[in-house]
Amino acid sequence: MSTIFGAIGSYLKGLGLILLPKNLKYLVLSGLASILFYAIAFGGAWYGGDYLTDLLTDRIANDKWRGIVDSIANVLSFLGLGLILLILYKHVVLVVTSPLMGPLSESIEVTQLKGTPQHPNKFGAGYSLWRGLRIALRNIIKELGLTLVLFILGMIIPPLAFLTTPLIVVLQAYYAGFANMDYFLERHLNYSESVSYVKSNRLAAVANGGLFLALLFIPVLGAFLAPSLGASAASIQLTKKFY
C-alpha cells in the first residue's frame, strides 16, 4: 500500500512541478502529441470496429441472427481493436515524446536534489529517442502477445474474464510505468540494468502506470497531462530511491 500511496503523492507533487515555467514547454509539446495520437487511436477503434462488424454481419442472410451477431461483434471488435490501439498509442506517444521527457525527468531530478544531478544525460535527445524505441519494441511485443492471450482466454472461457480482465489492466499499467521510469533510469543504468531494475520493482511500475492509464479516462485534459505527469511522478519516486 505504501508504494501505491507513494505513487499518488508523486503524481500530485509532479503536477505542481510540470507547471513550473522551466517545464511548461515539455508539458505543452508532449501534451499536443499525446492528444493527436489519442484521437487517432480512438477514431481507429470507433470506425475500425464498425468496419469489422460489417464484414461479419454482411455474410449472414438471416435477419435475426444478423442482429444478434451485429450486437456481439460490435462490442467485441470495439474492445479488441481499442485495446490494441491503446497499446500502440501508449508506446508511440512514449517514444515520440522521449526526447522531451528525458530533459523533463532531469529537470525534476535537479529540483528534487536542489542542485545538479550526479548522472546528467550525456547523450542527448537522439540517444533518448533510440533507447525509447528499443524499450518500446521490446515491451510492445511482450505486451501485445500477453494481452491477446488473456483476451482470447476470456472470450473462449467467459468465467475466466473475471481473472483475465484485471490482469490485462495490470499488464497495461506495468508497461506504461516501465516507460515512465526509464526516462530517469537512462541516466543511471544501462539497458539491461534498467530492465532488471523495473522487474525488481514491478509494483512501483504498476502503480505509476495505473495512474497514467486512469488519466486517459479524463477527456482531452487527461491525455494532455499523462506523458509529462507520468514521467515526472516516476522521476520523483526514483530520485528518492537512488539518492
Keyword list:
9 helices, single chain, 243 residues, globular, mainly alpha
What does this protein structure show overall?
The protein has 243 residues and is mainly α. It has one domain. It contains 9 helices and no strands. It has helices spanning 2-18, 24-57, 63-96, 98-113, 124-156, 161-185, 191-200, 202-215, 221-242. Helix 3 runs parallel beside helix 6 (161-185), helix 4 (98-113) packs across helix 5 (124-156) and helix 8 packs antiparallel against helix 9. It is globular and about 70 Å long. It starts with a helix and ends with a helix.
**In what range is the share of β-strand residues?**
under 5%
Largest sheet: none
Number of strands: 0
SS content category: mainly alpha
* Shape call: globular
Topology:
Elements: H1 2-18, H2 24-57, H3 63-96, H4 98-113, H5 124-156, H6 161-185, H7 191-200, H8 202-215, H9 221-242
Helix pairs in contact: 1-8, 1-9, 2-3, 2-9, 3-4, 3-5, 3-6, 4-5, 4-9, 5-6, 6-8, 6-9, 8-9
Summarize the structure.
The chain has 243 residues and is mainly α. Helix content is 84%, strand content 0%. The chain has one domain (2-242).
